[in-house]
Amino acid sequence: MTEMSEADRARDTAIAADLEDPHEILALILDPKRRGTLHPYLHRLREVAPILHTDQATGRPAWVLTRYAEIRDVLRRPDVRSDERGADLFDVGPEGHHFVDMQRNTLLFLSPRKHDHVRELISRAFTPRAVELRQERVQTVVDELIDRLAPLGRMDFVHDFAFRLPMAVICEMLGVPPDDLPQFYDWAQDSSRRAEIGGITDEIVSRGERATLGYADYFMKLIEDHRRAPRFDLMTALIDTRDEEGVGLSDEDLVGGCYILLQAGHGTTQDLLGMGILALLQRPEQLEFLRQTPEAIPTAVEELLRFDTSVQISQRVSDEPFQLGDTTIGAGEVCVLFNGAANRDPAMFADPDRLEIARTPNAHLSFGLGRHTCLGASLARLEIRTALETILRRLPDLRLDGDAPHAYRDSLFLRGLDTLPLRF
Ligand code: HEM
Fold first, then answer.
1. Per-residue pLDDT tens digits for 302-312
2. Is residue 267 part of a domain?
3. For the CA of 75, the nearest atom of ligand 1
4. Is residue 266 part of a domain?
5. Is 339 in a helix, a strand, or coil?
6. Can you list the pairs that 133-136 forms with residues at least 24 positions away whose Cβ atoms lie under 8 Å?
7. Is pLDDT larger for residue 358 or for residue 88?
8. Which atom of ligand 1 is nearest the CA belonging to 315?
9. What was the pLDDT predicted at 125?
10. Nearest CA to ligand 1 atom 21
11. Full residue range of the structural domain in which residue 222 is found
């Protein structure tokens, strides 16, 4: 966990500008102590070596990409895939196999044919329309959280709000009874930690196994329960959905589907909310503009997504050799895509380090592109929009807690704050 000040940021900007060796720059990007000052190093790597071949990022040879144009190109190519080869990255031997097996059953790492079939069926139950119908419930969850916090005058935004909102929403959609929520807290954190790159200790592996088995067992019972007593929720819709030939989701697909909806559906949004509120509180003129112009909230959501995305990295493996400019990427080679660097590429975004909440167009890559484009983008947008609108309206004196600094988690795949103390 790293605390960050403006002085740290200025220091890292100056350090990064003098660096020439791309491996040294990447080492600093991967250094957990620099999570809060990541962008100067991403900028420098993009300038010095936008297509870098190295084993530093994942412990095996890979192409590290930091320019918008190439990252977009790779995400759009049907022959450059995320499939079971991506799940191998998590392989640490038999003692960690439950986690790896679970990853292989999630949308992100299914083979293309299987992926498209499962995604088609999950999407039917998870349409933007179905999500929009949740609007009232999302508002109620946000209001209940603020009702509880408002009299206290202070909170840790990450623990007290940003974590709870997406977790409560996705659990409710899946039909998880509210009383069962607390047991998800540890599983969620242990699974996220296990999915990180680097620093995987025996303790992290064994906690990851416990979390995976806990999730699998819980979801299987929840599925059986819903089969016995169908309800009007996402889980029943997932159980009932069928393709044109009448083929539905297997138990394995359902468990993998619940797992990814829950795991991809809470930490990402939590981190985006945390870093987004921090960015606004650090820029009072933007915050004030948003208070005065609530109709700008939808563009503000897109800009916060661009400015500091929570999913910093995606990975792909090529089936066939292909060209990226002058560079040939060979068959079977891995590309590590720094989405956060693409979102700050000056070739795509004018003045990219400036948070401009009225920025349009804003073709950020925070939800990915192509076959694996985020399935939960509409839900994430709804949650962030509702949270922002309600917080600005109901906590007009919201400010950083001068006595307690914010701090970043060590993680990079999923980058975010560990704590964000606020007063109001
Ligand atoms: C701010 C919040 C979010 C961000 C930044 C985000 C980002 C992403 C990104 C970048 C991908 C693509 C990964 C890749 O290409 O390798 C992705 C995939 C996915 N996301 Fe999200 N996500 C967010 C919220 C959500 C929510 C709320 C849900 C569901 C409830 C969700 C469910 C998924 C699923 C299921 C996939 C896999 C899609 C596939 O492989 O076909 N995400 N997300």
1. 999 999 999 99
2. yes
3. 15
4. yes
5. helix
6. 134/169, 134/173, 134/379, 134/382, 135/382, 135/386
7. 358
8. 16
9. 82
10. 374
11. 85-306+361-423
- Residue range 79-88: average pLDDT? 91
* pLDDT confidence band for 59 (50 / 70 / 90): confident
What average pLDDT does range 354-369 have in this prediction?
A: 97
The CATH number of the domain holding residue 153 is: 1.10.630.10
- In the numeric block, the tokens 């962008």 are attached to 39
Spacing, Cα 411 to ligand 1 middle (Å): 17
Determine the distance separating the centroid of ligand 1 and the alpha carbon of 221, expressed in angstroms. 25
pLDDT bucket at 45, cuts 50 / 70 / 90:
very high
User: What's the rounded Cα separation, in Å, for the pair 358 and 195?
Assistant: 34
> What number is the average pLDDT over the span 341-364?
97
CB atoms closer than 10 angstroms to residue 298: 15
Find the 133 Cα to ligand 1 centroid distance in Å: 20
Between the CA of 375 and the centroid of ligand 1 the distance, in Å, is 6
Counted domains in the chain: 1
Q: How many CB atoms lie within 10 A of CB 126?
A: 22
**Index of the ligand 1 atom closest to the CA of residue 369:** 15
- The DSSP result for 274-307, as a single string, is HHHHHHHHT-HHHHHHHHH-GGGHHHHHHHHHHH
**Spacing, Cα 376 to ligand 1 middle (Å):** 6
Which residues lie closer than 8 Å to 356 by C-beta, 6 or more apart?
A: 286, 303
The binding-site residues of ligand 1, defined as CB within 6 angstroms of any ligand atom, are 82, 107-108, 119, 170, 260-261, 264-265, 268-269, 272, 309-311, 314, 366-368, 372, 374-376, 379-380
In a domain, 228, yes or no: yes
**Quick check: is 193 in a domain?**
yes
The verdict on whether omega for the bond into residue 361 sits within 30 degrees of 0, i.e. cis, is yes
**Atom 43 of ligand 1: nearest residue by CA position:** 374
Q: How far is the CA of 377 from the centre of ligand 1 (A)?
A: 7
